[in-house]
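Late entry, evening session. Most of the bench is empty. Finally got around to the prediction I had been postponing all week. Sequence below, unchanged from the version circulated by S.P.
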Amino acid sequence: MKIRSKALAGVALAAVAALSLSACGGGAGSSSTSGSAASEGAAGTAAAGDTITVYNAQHEELTQAWVDAFTKATGIKVNLRNGDDSEMAQQLIQEGKNSPADVFLTENSPAMSAVENAGLFADPGTDAKNNVPEAYRPSTGTWVGIAARSTVLVYNKNKVNESDLPKSLMDLSNSAWKGRWAASPSGADFQAIVSAMLQLKGESATLDWLKAMKDNSKAYKGNSTAMKAVNAGEIDMAVIYHYYYFGDQAKTGENSKNVGLHYFKNQDPGAFVSVSGGGVLASSKHQAAAQKFLAFVTGTDGQKVLQTGSSYEYPVGSGVAANPKLVPLSDLQAPAVDAAKLNSKKVTDLMTQAGLL
């Protein structure tokens, strides 16, 4: 799910002229990861006046801030096409080698893995890879992390004592929590969390947990809605990402004033840090410019947009620290998860089998 905000505060870069949206390309097919079909090629040069097309499944306001700063710095223009993780991944897979996209940005890693498994990514570029530590890149090296978000359990402070909260995300399968917690099972955010559980705990344990979730939890449409229900006392707890809380607190706080944050830590599945990804398409005819865009996003200036803006996501590149309101990434004690192996199809199959989808 996306947070819609009017502006990203603290980004002292003027907006460029409005960016036009071009019609979607069609056709299915596959591409190699060599980039040899691109007219510019990975070894080409990027120049002011070039235009690239970015398929964007990240927060629109965040990506627009990146685009405005990038264009001002380089003169390279960007056409944005906005959508959701899974729908844009599927569009890229359907378009294949005929895709007009140069870059794909996501909120969660499973969508990147789907496109990668279809053989549609080229080299993201040496600069972008050097900007991002291994912990926030897939083992395959075909794309890079651009931001991150932490799994949290939000709870109503008037109904639940922090000392009584579950010690692990896996504990929510216990009957003691029946009817007391919520999530947004249809959303890409929650499905990414389940993807991590699948990698860490295996198929059998994950399916058992999902079946218990069907009995124990209440489903909401969207993480913001789930948090709002916790705040109102409709439900005791909900599994969401951290930035929904901080985004609301930065505004009126009306949907989070009664909410506390619980970080599972201890390498628990509930301490999963989801990596937002960026990749260059093998079908791109402007690969040098596309690589330059990823290098900018993961570079110091691009990551400071995360540090100082209102998205409240974590920077992952160039040593840029998180917004001081956030728990530092190093303190989250997140489990080691290979983003390249997050299996969105298996997750949706298991969630369907459990009756959640």
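Two things to note before I forget:
Residues 147 and 315 are 5 Å apart (CA to CA).
The chain has two domains: 51-148+274-325, 149-272+339-353.
Will write this up properly tomorrow.
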